[in-house]
């Protein structure tokens, strides 16, 4: 449960637009719905921009009505589709998007997405001063300025479900499994899944894989009283094929690892309760932030309070606390 | 992700005991495992007390080994079984439990449970000064001193899954559904499920049901453009049959509600990622709290930090923030 | 996996219509999609009739295109909505429906539904001789002429999931649970859920509840070596409140049963693999049956073969084999 | 629902043994439980052989009691663990197993497993004439003599769940996904998952991948009105890395496929209702087959009837019906 901020309306907002950008995350639809409903409830028009910044640049924009967002709360993916828009790195292209918002008489914009989307929004807001609010939505949970991001909890549960299934069969056979979860730069998802799933080891992208250490640790485990159910959670990392390479190396050292690559499975599925509540709160409050004339911010969660952080202050990736990896090690052995 | 406290060992703990008490909550097993593993890892003996305070009083106690807790992380329920022990309200009975702990040379106790368990622990600790730590575990989320409790997140997702299923059929038929979730005194679960599930109304136990208002609101909905998928989430409340009585009253007023009573379904199921991570962190840190000589406390979560609160200070039920119910109303319409 | 019939086209079908009728069943959407896709693939127009026979009578009919059925395969409920249409019992009303089909130049009709829908279709076909095919879709599995019905498998898995969750908590507390599943006249669902869930007793609607026998059996179980996890599956039966009455009676006899009423939860959820494959095969073959000029039939499954049965021959309810209840008893004890 | 055979007891069976062999399949535990309960119910002793034929050869055998099988019905994996035993191909080793059965006064053996287990059992039975019954359990569904195998339905639903999740994100991004399911020699699982999941293409191991045809078909789809949600289901095949190689080849041709490898996820999870009912029926009837003196057979399902097939007659792999792949193609486009 979150603490909601008190915000006093000071600006007359008559029309807002909303877009989803970057990799999709479960709960984006819940955020779209909350933005739309909270606005429509007050007589504010709502426009849906298709395919992220691409649709903003190409003016691929259509009205959102209450029925249109009426049955999307429980759906993964995003009604508005999403995209990564390389073009949006060019100032001229961003100004084009700005013109479209002016032409359509939009008074405020809500951007739902991850770190790439945040970077685009920061540049856009700095240049144009257009009132916008960014809502953090990524399964990576690595947005500075917010303890939580929309989609992380669902992705963690999806990864955990896979581990639980593998554990059934691992216990039957005393095998070694490598389970690759998403996470190019951040180990939050791997850590959450690894602790929750009781993984023997968690290999995050923040640390290079020390093959000797992995191999040594596996041998120690072999001689212990609990030879069964050995699962290593591996974050995918920047360079594709990380888990396959590790499997190859372990095979050469005499182990017989089985590989599962969850891939985009983690992006889908009905969003969890937590992701829907988070998305609903962020979406509804985003409208109030625009009405309070306080755009140019990320609306995130800090210590369970919904808080605004100026976009200009942000940009670092949220670091992973190593104490959690130590804890994982402690209770595994 | 949680922030873990720094704790310096100051007491020589050689043997601890752990019990689960009150209504079971998914994640209790993960907490038992974390307590046991964190202790065993440091050479501390671990005893499992069966059936809560009843087992303490009857000395129904057996050693926990690493293999015994090796495959319970993902299971609902509790390996140690749980019970409500009326007898434990009597001082003499509590002293009997104390004697058993002394006889078995137990240096510290971890109690995993809800508000009843907390009350028992507070009395026990006040009288005997026995070092103990309480970990909040209840699907009701209503423990003063902790923002979160083990089991709430799983129960919310279970309730949400039911709502999602009902929504499928509600949309096919334009029917009205009453879904009863748990919650005798607290509306946290109903609120979380209701917001996440997009319920038309959320009837919490903190507020009496105003039949005229419910009926009026349903009629307004009927005349709106969105006649489909009408779901009311009802917390069970103190007096059994609350939902059935509401259904009866609504039928008399011309509605045709369908009833689902989730009951104990919400207590089971594989615990969610969040509940397992919470339970794992609390369990591992509980051992450190005992080693730091800081017993007599609840170990809970405040603003994502694991914090200790003296048992003597606690006892109130955590209140529900009405702002969340207003938010639910705002985005529903 | 099913054996598909060989059918030779003999009639020029240019336009077909499809409707879903009665209680919705998971997989109806998969059947709609298969009918539409199989027809469109051959250049046949497809019309979707809304709300079952009601939409036929009121000419609430619209074209179905490939994109319209493009994302429904995995959804519970029915895109075409469903309804029970009392009016359709009147011959004049049925003829009105017939006129609408003629006006819209429909050459064949596919009816997806349960026993009530079958009865309506039989009368309609007998009177008007309009070419139609009925596909069995009901979570009750009680359609004469087909071993399987669309929706049964999903509903069974939903009920089973509830039992699995309750078992977690039952094992923690040694309690007695009554779980009410759907089934007004037929015990197929209760039997499948009961066997799969290891229920101590299965109370089907085909047999009156013998309270003495239930009570006696529970007492025997109490004195056995396995006192935990006692779950009784109760089919809802014709008269509402069956399970509540049983709970009351058992309470009076000194038991303390907990009640769960699954209700319409069982109708929703993503359809199972089996239901989708069944629905896909039936839907695709239904078009071929119409093209072969062999309307006036139920297209069902017998011994894994898709077979046609003349509507005139059908009408009895499929009986439950008592050998299965005996088997359930055998492996429970 | 299955039709159970009538069997008349003719042999005095006092003690039976049961083992699970080969790759584990969800529902094996349900079969173990049914064998044990049906035997114990009649006063027959039950021994559990650990790790398949390995445990038979090494006399790793222990009694199964009713409580021991009391909470396994809903668990994936196998209580008895499973193994592939290369040694069992040697006659001398098989006779060693036979001696252990004689020494322990076992009157009948139930073998639960797939085609490798069946081959071992056939040789063992032919040489020793020891009374045994094989129950088909493999997620591949490819056992001659049985339409269905324990584990297939659960594995299909697990694969389908993955596809449903990917579809969410595929629809958001218009991407191409390759999903690898199990199946070294048989395409049953790929076909079931592909039809149920609405896959654009299903690549079974029975057919070599024609890269030109795949590529051509993908290009046609690109130019169609439904560019979104493109999922290709790929059976793993004999040679590891099949899906990765296909991804590589498609990338070279200008596509950008994303890969998911489900791997052993498909072997785990709570068994489906269908698998548990199948396993329960087969297990209970297996005991009756031994009591009827009719060992030396596979007990399978044909046309929904539980039937016995002499082991000597079996050995071919069940072929996949190409009509189903044609049907999949028909309703996809």
From TrEMBL, chains A, B, C, D:
- The UniProt gene name for this protein comes to pfkA
Under what name is this protein listed?
ATP-dependent 6-phosphofructokinase
User: InterPro entries from the entry?
Assistant: ATP_PFK, ATP_PFK_prok-type, PFKA_ATP_prok, Phosphofructokinase_dom, PKF_sf
Q: Which residues form the Phosphofructokinase domain?
A: 15-290
Coiled-coil parts of chain: none
What are the EC numbers?
Answer: 2.7.1.11
Q: Which family does it belong to?
A: Belongs to the phosphofructokinase type A (PFKA) family. ATP-dependent PFK group I subfamily. Prokaryotic clade 'B1' sub-subfamily.
The record's Gene Ontology biological-process terms are: canonical glycolysis; fructose 1,6-bisphosphate metabolic process; fructose 6-phosphate metabolic process
Keyword tRNA-binding attached: no
């Amino acid at each position: 449960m979150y603490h909601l901020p008190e915000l006093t309306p000071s600006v007359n907002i008559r029309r807002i637009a909303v877009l989803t950008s970057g990799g999709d995350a479960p709960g984006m639809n819940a955020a779209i719905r909350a933005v739309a409903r909270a606005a429509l409830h007050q007589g504010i028009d709502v426009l849906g921009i298709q395919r992220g910044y691409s649709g903003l640049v190409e003016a691929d924009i259509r009205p959102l009505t209450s029925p249109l967002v009426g049955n999307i709360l429980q759906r993964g993916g995003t009604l508005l589709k999403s995209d990564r828009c390389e073009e949006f790195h060019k100032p001229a292209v961003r100004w084009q998007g700005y013109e479209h918002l002016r032409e359509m008489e939009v008074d405020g914009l809500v951007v739902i997405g991850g770190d790439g989307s945040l970077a685009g929004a920061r540049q856009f807001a700095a240049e144009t001063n257009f009132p916008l609010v960014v809502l953090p939505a990524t399964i990576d949970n690595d947005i500075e300025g917010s303890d939580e991001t929309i989609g992380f909890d669902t992705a963690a549960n999806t990864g955990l479900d896979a581990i639980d299934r593998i554990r059934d069969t691992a216990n039957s056979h005393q095998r070694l499994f490598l389970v690759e979860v998403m996470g190019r730069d951040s180990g939050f998802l791997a850590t959450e899944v690894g602790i929750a799933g009781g993984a023997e080891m968690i290999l995050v992208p923040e640390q290079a894989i020390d093959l000797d250490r992995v191999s040594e640790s596996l041998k120690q485990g072999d001689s212990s009283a609990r030879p069964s159910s050995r699962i290593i959670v591996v974050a995918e990392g920047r360079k594709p094929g990380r888990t396959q390479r590790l499997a190859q190396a372990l095979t050469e050292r005499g182990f017989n690892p089985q590989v599962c690559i969850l891939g985009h499975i983690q992006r889908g599925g009905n969003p969890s309760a937590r992701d829907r509540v988070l998305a609903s709160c962020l979406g509804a409050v985003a409208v109030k932030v625009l009405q309070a004339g306080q755009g140019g911010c990320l609306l995130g969660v800090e210590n369970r309070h919904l808080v605004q952080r100026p976009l200009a202050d942000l940009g670092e990736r949220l670091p992973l606390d190593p104490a959690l990896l130590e804890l994982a090690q402690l209770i595994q052995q």
